[in-house]
Amino acid sequence: MSIATVFEIVLAAVVLGLGVWTIVVPETFSATVGFVAYGLLVALVWVRLDAVDVALTEAAIGGGLGGVLLLGAAARLRDADLMAEKTPGTLRASAAALSVLMAAALAGAVLVLPDPAPTLAPAAVAKAGATSLSNPVTNVLMAFRAMDTMLEKIVLLLAVVGVWSLASDFAWGGRPGPRHEADPRGVLVFLARLLPPIGIVVGIHVLWAGADQPGGAFQGGAILASMWLLAIMTGLADTPSVSLRWIRLILVAGPGLFLVVGLVGLLFDDAFLSYPPALAKPLILGIEVTMTLTIAATLGLLLAGAPERSAQP
Amino acid sequence: MSTVTVFGLCAAAVASLGLYGLITDPRPLRKIIAFNLLGSGVFLLFGVVGRRGAAAGIGNDPVPQALVITGIVVAFSATALAIALLLRLFQTTAFLEPSIRAAPGDDPDRAAS
User: Fold this and answer.
1) Residue B56 contacts A where some CB pair is shorter than 8 Å
2) Does A95 map to a domain?
3) For residue A23, what are the domain limits?
4) Looking at the complex, does the CB of residue A140 fall below 8 Å from at least one CB of chain B?
5) ipTM entry
6) Which end of chain B is less packed: N or C, by CB atoms within 10 Å?
7) Residue of chain B minimizing CA distance to A32
8) Does B47 touch chain A (CB under 8 A)?
9) A73 and A137 share a domain?
10) Apex CA B14: angle with CA B9 and CA B18, to 5°?
11) Is residue A303 one of the residues assigned to a domain?
12) DSSP assignment of B18-54
């Protein structure tokens, strides 16, 4: 057995152990911490699977923004642990049996996958010239399966609308979340002043590098969003009131531009979302830049939650 | 054992762990976390299948990779919406029904059933 295989087995065991911890530990807060650690290690699994684009996304979401979301909720719901009723033993036993059955079925499916494996990688590489981008994943996301990506942005927008509509009458159209405050001489505030300039450059680099290397609009947007959240959490910036026109404009700009480009493709070319080859790269870059802004704003506002304070001070 | 087998079995186990937690844990936030674990296992299975489809100098089939990236984003936005719903639910019920805050273990009728 090679060293790489031993490393992979240990990594899989630790990931599995964290998964078990997340499910069985009695305190919700500990489960949340377990899940964040799990997300970061799963990003390593994705690197081992040679899917670095997915690893970046998983690290940004599973370990980063998702962790902030779950930890915040766990901290606010601490009392809710007391309300839990005990699950009857029969239900536990039948759920365990069902889970074991599912694990066995999935494991069986993994072991008898067809050989040679079906793949679309050669097709994606052969058509890469059509867009002059050399990262195959960005090509699939932005050109070959652009419809999925556009619908995903619409899902993000709908999620924000859903979250905002949970505001109470008093806070309707107001500012999301509580106003955060931190010790102005503390480490957190120091980091919130130091990190954003670097983080913003890294976010833009990840977006730009996405054309030819792992990276892209979503990963870049997630980094920008985390910088914004850092400033919000230390009280250096406040969440914007959700009735502001510019914030709504940013939220619809990404899917809106995507839709317009798609419709123009329908008018002047032969299909929805077909880019004329000469303009493919500038069009994709334009959509990606707009989408990065939209994604950063959307992720930040999703994490900030429903409006809780009235728009008027 | 190859990379595909090790992580494939790991993904199968993680997905079923998530299913178990989703069914047995009555607390809503734990259900959300368990559902995310279930989803993460399914995404990993995609990655394993894509890894087997490595060809033309790419280590992992780009189409499942793109699908998983889209899936992670959609799962995240659904989680954010679920948590916002949960916080709002807790905010409204915590004030309206103080009786449900009593620990159910103290109730002899319930403990017997």
Assistant:
1) yes
2) no
3) 1-78
4) yes
5) 0.88
6) C
7) B33
8) yes
9) no
10) 150
11) yes
12) HHHHHHH---HHHHHHHHHHHHHHHHHHHHHHHHHT-
| Rounded average pLDDT over A177-203 | 85
Q: What is the mean pLDDT of chain A?
A: 84
Mean pLDDT of A196-224: 86
Q: The domain containing residue B58 runs over which residues?
A: 3-97
Residues A10-23 have a mean pLDDT of: 91
Helices A280-304/A217-233 angle, 10° precision: 30
Q: Do A82 and B101 touch (CB under 8 A)?
A: yes
For A102, name the nearest residue in chain B, comparing CA atoms only: B16
Q: Are residues A248 and A311 in the same domain?
A: yes
Asked if A50 and B100 come within 8 Å (Cβ–Cβ), the reply is no
**Over 60: is that where the pLDDT of A96 sits?**
yes
Provide the pLDDT for residue B32.
92
Inspect the interface and report whether the beta carbons of B47 and A163 lie closer than 8 Å.
Answer: no
Residue B56 lies in a domain: yes
Place of tokens 């981008």: A133
B108, pLDDT greater than 60: no
Highest-scoring range by mean pLDDT, A6-20, A125-139, A273-287:
A6-20
Q: What is the pLDDT of residue A161?
A: 92
pTM: 0.86
Average pLDDT over residues B62-69: 88
Residues written for chain B = 113
pLDDT given for residue B100 in this prediction:
46
Q: Which residues of B touch A50 (CB under 8 A)?
A: 51, 54, 59-60
* Residue A61 lies inside a defined structural domain of this protein: yes
Contact B83 A73 (CB under 8 A): yes
Residue B23: closest CA among chain A residues belongs to which residue?
A95
pLDDT per residue over A17-68, tens digit each?
Answer: 999 999 988 888 888 999 999 999 999 999 988 888 889 888 888 778 888 8
Q: Which of A23, A61, A122 sits opposite B72 (nearest CB)?
A: A61
Residue A282 burial (10 A CB sphere; 0-12, 13-18, 19+) = exposed
From the list A12, A110, A141, the residue facing B66 with the nearest CB is: A141
Residues A142 and A67 in one domain: no
Q: Do B77 and A166 touch (CB under 8 A)?
A: no
The domain total for chain B is 1
Partner-chain contact B19 A166, CB within 8 Å: no
* Residue A168 pLDDT level (bands cut at 50, 70, 90): confident
**Both A53 and A188 in a single domain?**
no
The average pLDDT across B6-30 equals 90
The whole-angstrom separation of Cα A26 and Cα B35 is 17
Q: Look-up: residue for tokens 């072991």?
A: A111
Query: Tokens for A6?
Result: 């031993």
Query: What 8-state DSSP symbol labels residue A62?
Result: I
Chain A touched by B99 (CB under 8 Å): no
